[in-house]
Design a protein that fits this description.
The chain is α+β, with helices and mostly antiparallel strands. The protein folds into 2 domains: 171 residues, Regulatory protein AraC (Jelly Rolls, Sandwich); 110 residues, Homeodomain-like (Arc Repressor Mutant, subunit A, Orthogonal Bundle). The protein is built from 11 helices and 10 strands. Strands 1-2-9-4-7-10 form a 6-stranded mixed sheet. Strands 3-8-5-6 form a 4-stranded antiparallel sheet, with no helix packed on it. Helix 2 packs across helix 4. The two termini are 23 Å apart.
Length: 296
């Protein structure tokens, strides 16, 4: 069964490090309770398509945020800055796949006529897929078909997965003239600055980081740094940094046997008592309690 968790570890520029599938079959299928493991801000060169099997999630893509309810889904385009969280227990089922799985090489008719318009259309950075819309309902069915095939892996499933996702891209290509979410030049600039600052955070996650340093990373002033974070992420940079460090610590607590004090240091907390206090504030329990609860 080719299904796993989508913890989305990121590299120095917050581009996701997870290898989705393989070079031969570049797709990953994931089942995740986002309430337990929120997915922090990141981006990747693959396309992402998902639906909420149970519960509800809050999806943010750049400055846009929306609630995706049970039975609904979404499409996030390649290289779009995004994050996901959930107010309570949920089940999110996700496909992350490289454009070449569907389009082949860039000279093919599949890429030139269908994939390229989807990749290049800013209005398709985020698409909220709701069952009440016949076109969206069809897209949701294509995503579910591909995900089910990835889970069951029947003989020749690779052909069927590619066929389902090809139908999804074809449907999306029909939307690209709608331009319902075309961002302004200012929004594009803000997203570029955010990526530079997130890159700096990822490179210096274990160090002390100031607003002045973050602003310098994007060649902007401190007030512009604060505005950019508030507009895009919805929280001041230092609070975002603290929350990000706690989430990284929570991932290590759930996935490893490392000592809690080592996890604290690796997550950017040099003071163990401050780490414990902050962890309790964010998660509502101590690090040791969290480790015990998350493992059942």
């Amino acid at each position: 069964m080719a299904i796993s968790r989508s913890s989305a570890p990121t590299g120095k520029n917050d581009r996701e490090l997870t290898v989705h599938g393989s070079a031969l079959f570049p797709i990953g299928a994931y089942r995740e309770d986002v309430h337990k493991t929120p997915i922090p801000w990141h981006w990747h060169p693959e396309l992402e398509a998902a639906w909420v099997e149970r519960g509800q999630i809050r999806l943010s893509v750049g400055k846009y945020s929306l609630t995706v309810n049970e039975g609904e889904g979404y499409f996030v385009n390649a290289d779009a800055l995004h994050s996901t969280k959930a107010p309570e227990q949920c089940e999110l089922r996700t496909l992350v796949f490289h454009p070449r799985l569907v389009a082949g090489n860039m000279e093919s008719v599949f890429y030139q006529r269908y994939m390229r318009p989807v990749l290049n259309e800013e209005a398709l950075k985020l698409v909220h897929l709701t069952p009440g819309n016949p076109l969206f309902s069809g897209m949701l069915e294509h995503i579910r078909e591909a995900w089910s095939l990835m889970e069951r892996e029947p003989e020749g499933y690779e052909f069927e997965v590619r066929a389902s996702l090809s139908r999804l891209i074809f449907s999306l290509s029909k939307l690209y003239s709608a331009r319902t979410l075309s961002p302004s030049r200012k929004e594009l600039r803000d997203e570029h600055r955010m990526k530079l600052m997130l890159e700096y955070i990822a490179e210096h996650i274990t160090e002390e980081i100031t607003v002045e340093e973050l602003a310098a990373a994007a060649s902007i002033g401190e007030s512009e740094c604060l505005r950019c974070f508030k507009a895009t992420v919805g929280t001041p940079p230092i609070r975002y940094l603290k929350l990000l460090r706690i989430e990284k610590a929570a991932e290590r607590l759930a996935a490893s046997e490392e000592k809690i004090e080592d996890i604290a240091a690796l997550s950017g907390f040099q003071d163990m008592s401050y780490f414990a206090k902050t962890f309790r504030e964010v998660k509502g329990m101590t690090p040791s309690e969290y480790r015990k609860n998350i493992r059942g």
